Amino acid sequence: MATHRLTNPLSDMFWRRPRVLLALLLAPPLLWLGVVYIGSLAALLLQSFFSIDEFSGLINYEFTLKTYGELLRPANYDIVLRTTLMAAAVTVASAVIAFPIAFYAARYAKGRMKAFFYLAVMLPLWSSYLVKVYAWKLILAKEGILTWAVDGIGASAALNALLSLPVIGGNSLSVSYIGTFLVFLYVWLPYMILPLQASLERVPANLLEASDDLGASRGQTLRHVILPLAMPGMIAGSIFTFSLTLGDYIIPQIVGSSRNFIGQAVYAHQGTAGNIPLAAAFAVVPIVIMGVYLWMAKRKGAFDAL
Amino acid sequence: MHSDRASLLLKSAAFAGLLFLHLPILLIFVYAFTTEDRTYQWPPPGLTLKWFAVTWNRPDVWEAMALSVRVASISTAIALVLGTLCAAAVSRAKFFGREAVSLLVILPIALPGIITGISLRSAFNIGGIPFSTLTIILGHATFCIVVVYNNAVARFRRISGSMLEASSDLGANGFQTFWHVVLPNIGTALLAGGMLAFALSFDEVIVTTFTAGQQATLPIWMLEELVRPRQRPVTNVVAMIVVLVTFLPILGAYYLTRGGTETAGGSK
Questions:
Q1: pLDDT of amino acid A188
Q2: Of A61, A195, B5, B82, which has the fewest CB atoms closer than 10 Å, so is most exposed?
Q3: ipTM above 0.85, yes or no
C-alpha cells in the first residue's frame, strides 16, 4: 500500500488535499461560464449606459441614463406594459389548465398511467419550439382547422364576435392578440405542469384524510389544504411561463398583430435600427422584472419545488 | 367522502389538457401529406407522398441539417465535459460559493433566451470575433451545460463516498477510480444528459439568431420559412421529420433515467 501510494503522487495529493481537486474540477466550467456568459452579460449591461447620437447614428461611449429615459416614452412604455400583461395572462391561464393535469397525475395516476402522463407532458415540452409555433400557424389560419371546426358546430357568429372585439380581436385569429396568447399558452404549458405536479406529489395523503375526517367537502379540502400546499410549485412554474413570455420575440412575430413585444423591440433595435444601447436597455427590463419576481418567489419558498 | 377515485370532472379536465398538448403536433403529420401547396387549407383536398421526394432533393435542407448536427454534437461534447466537472465538484463537497455555482450554471437557461443571445452578440462584437459556426457553438454549449449538470448531479449524489475510498484502498489511482468506479455509475445519466443537450441544441433558435452569421441551422431555416413562406409543403415535411428526430432522444433519455429519484430533463 505504502509503496503504491508513493508511485501515485497525484492521487495521493488529491486525497490529502481535496481542495486542490475541487479547484481543478471547478476551474474549466467556471472559466467558461464566467468568461463567455458573465462577461457577455456585463457587456450588455455596459452598453445600456451608452447612448446613440441622434444625428450621426453612432454610439456615444459616455456614461448616461438617457437611454433608460427613452424607455419611458409612451411608445416604448406601451411595449413593456403590453408584454408584462401578456406574460401575466399566460401565467394565470396556464396555471388553470395545468392544475387538473398535474393533480390527476400526482394523486390518481399509478404505474403505467403515471409513466404515460409523464411522457405525455415531456414529449410536447421537448419537441421543437418552431414546429409547435408552426402547428399553430396552421391551426389559426383563416382557411385552417379551427375555422373549419367552428363552422362545423355552427358557432362562426361567436368567433366573429370575438374577433370584432377591440384590442384583442383582429382580422383573423392568426393576426390577433388572442392568437398570440393561445400560442404562448400552448408552448409554455408543460413548464407549469411539471413543478406543479412535483409539489402536489409532496402533499401528504394523511392531511387530505384528516381534512376529510373533519368534515370538509372536496371543494373545501381543495381550497384550504391542497392549494396552499401546491403554491410553491405554482410559483415555480409561473417563473418559467412569465420569464419565457417576457423574452420571446418569435411567437408574436409569427402569430399576432403588428404591435411589438419587448423581445421584438430588442431584436429590431440591435438589428436594422442599429441602436444597440436602446436594445440593451430593453433587454435589461425582463432581467429586472424577473429579479423582483424571483426575489418574491424565494420568500414564498418556491425554489424547493424546482 | 374522500375516495381514491378521481371525479369525472377532474379526469376529463386532465385528459382534455393532454389533448390540447398533443393535437397540434399530430396535425403536423397530416399536413406533411397534403396536396395543397399554396394555403393551409383544412381538410386537405388530397393526400400525396410527393413532397417527401421534393424535400429529399433540396440541398439547402440537407446543408441546414448537417450544420445543426455538427453544432449539436460539438456543443454536447463541450457541455458533457464542463457539466460533469461542475456536478462532481458541487455534489462532492460543501464549499463557499456552492450555491453561486449552481445559480451560475442555471442562469443561461433561466434568463430569457433573448438576453443570452444579445449578451453574447455584444460580447462578440466588442471582442471583434466574427460570427461563424464557432460563435453558434459557443452559445449552444453555454446553455447545454445545465442539462448535463442536472442529470449528473442527481446521480453523483447517489454514489457513496465509501465506494471511492474502497477503490483507492484497493490501490486504484484517481484515473482508475474514475474509469472503473465513477464512470459506470454515472454513465447512463451522462448519456441521458447528452441526449437532452443534443435535442436542446438541435432545436435552439433564439440564441442562434443572434450568434450566427450567414450560416443557417435547421431551426434558422425553418424560421425563414415561417416568416417568408416559399415552399409550404417542404416546410411541412421538414417539421414532421424534426418532430420524429427529437422524440427519439427524449424517449431514450426517459428509459435511461427511469427509476431514479430525479428525472431527466426536469427543467429544460
A1: 94
A2: B5
A3: no
